[in-house]
Amino acid sequence: MPELPEVETYRRYLEATSLYQTITHVDVEDHKLLTVSYDTLQHALKGNQFTGTRRVGKNLFVLTRTGAVVTMHFGMTGDLAYYRDEEDRPSYARIVFHFNTGFKLAFICPRKFERIGLIEDIDGYLRHKKIAPDALEASTEDLTRVFMKKKASVKPVLLDQSTVAGLGNWIVDEVLFDAAIHPERVANQLSEDEINRLHAAIRKVLTVAIEREAVYRDFPKDFLIHVREWDDSPHSESGGHRLCPRCTTRIEKAYVGGRATYFCPQCQRE
Length: 270
Ligand SMILES: [Zn+2]
Description:
By secondary structure, this protein is α+β, with helices and mostly antiparallel strands. The protein has helices at about 5-15, 40-45, 120-130, 140-150, 155-160, 170-180, 190-210; strands at about 25-30, 50-55, 60-65, 70-75, 80-85, 95-100, 105-110, 115-120, 250-255, 260-265. It folds into two domains: about 5-130, MutM-like, N-terminal (N-terminal domain of MutM-like DNA repair proteins, Alpha-Beta Barrel); about 140-265, Helicase, Ruva Protein, domain 3, CATH 1.10.8. Strand 6 (about 95-100) and strand 7 (about 105-110) form a beta hairpin. The structure holds zinc ion (ZN).
């Protein structure tokens, strides 16, 4: 599933390819992929240009010359591709923005969980959807403020997009591992030092993931990601026989807030 690092990679890709070209039309294969009417989208974008981007968590906003903002949600498997010739059109390019330069930007949605919409006001949208500050922009004060109010385990609190936006399941496990905090510690009992470690770990994990363009095999060897199983089905209870990359204790797997969770019982004490 595209997480914050993937969406940041898409954002940079869109900025590098698709700005300041006049949009001639938008092809939409299936109108269910739109959260506005097709006519509204076409009317807002025809003759318009993309001029910039903003990302908050997993939400990508594409700014235009007229002030209208295109929202992109990448769902489970969404992606972008920029191309010119029809034979290079990728599979599942279900929404395609055509530019007067002859180039096109495809919004790829294999499983149709992806969505494109149109809004006028990003901050109003974020408030309405209760989306918190982006995880890379949240300060230690932001974290302290939300943690003070939460008696739940720290892991589901971090996954909640109204706490900080953009932290998915594996990222939260990696962050807690890096900060040496057990996933079931109660959020409002964390010390100032622990919240500082958590804040630093969020920045570190996301920065590494973005630098490596979310290619997980290129992550540092001491990351937990190399020992997690990607089949998170309830059948695989063992957690494998995988060892902590920092202390060689056997990694444990548990379900915290209903989500498969990997942690080192030695490095992350309860
Ligand atoms: Zn360990």
